[in-house]
What does this fold into?
Amino acid sequence: MSRSALIVHGGAGPVPPSELAERQAAVERALEAGWQRIGSGALEAAVAAVRHMEDEPLLNAGIGACLNADGVVELDAGVMDGRDRSAGGAACLRDVRHPIDLALAVMRDGRHVLLAADGASRFAREHGVEMADPSTFITDRKRQELAQGTDTVGAVARDADGHVAVAVSTGGRTGKLAGRIGDSPIPGAGLYADDRHGAVCGTGVGEAFMRLGLCRVAIVELEHGMDPTEVAKKAIAWLGRSMNAVGGIILIGREGDPQAAFNTPAMPWAQRVD
It folds into this structure.
C-alpha cells in the first residue's frame, strides 16, 4: 500500500494582494473536493479537484477565465493516467461547461489524444458532456481583460495502490490570438504521469513549457533517481535560465510528499497526504 497524496495549485503569476487570500481559499476548497474522491483512485481525485477550480471565478479556468484578443474565453484542459500513460486533451473550447470533463472523455474514448475547437465541441455533445453558452464564462469583463492570464490550474494525485494521475485546465494567456493552444493539454509539455516514476503538471508561460518539454523532463529526472524536491526546484530554475520564463510546477513521486516550486510572486497551492 502507498500513502495517498494530493496537491493542487491555482496558478503561478502576479496575484493582486486583495485576491491572494481568496485564491488560496479556492485552492483549499478544490483540495477538499479532490480528497473526497481519493478512495476512488488518483485519476478521479485529480479530475474532481480541477473540476471544482473551473467553477472558481478568481482562477483562470472555466468560469472567469481570461479573455483572448477577440474578447472571448477559449479554454484548454488535459488529463493523464499513470497506469498506462493514457492521455486526453481538449483545446480552444468556447461552449463546454467543464473542459476537464471533455479531456477525460477524449482519454477514455482512446482514439485520439487532443481535440480542438468545433470538432472538440461536437465530440463533447456526442458524448453527453455538459455544454454552455460562451457568455457563461464571462463574469466580469473588465477584470478578465486586465487579468494576468498565464496561471493554469492543476492537480496531481497518488492513490493507495500507488497509481498517479494529473489533471489541468486553463483559460490560457490574456490577449492570446484566437486558436492559440498552450501546454496544458499536451502530454510532456504541461503534464505527465507514469506510475513507475510519478506525475507532474506545470503553470506559467505555456510556450516555454512546450519548447522545453518540461514536464516530461521532470519525469525523466525522477526516473534517474533525483529527489522530487530537487526535481521541482531545478525544473523551475531551468525554465527561468533557459527561456527567461516564469511559472511553477507541482509533482508527486512514487513515494514521499508532494512538491511545489515556482519563480513567480505567488502560486496558491495546497496538499494533503494520508
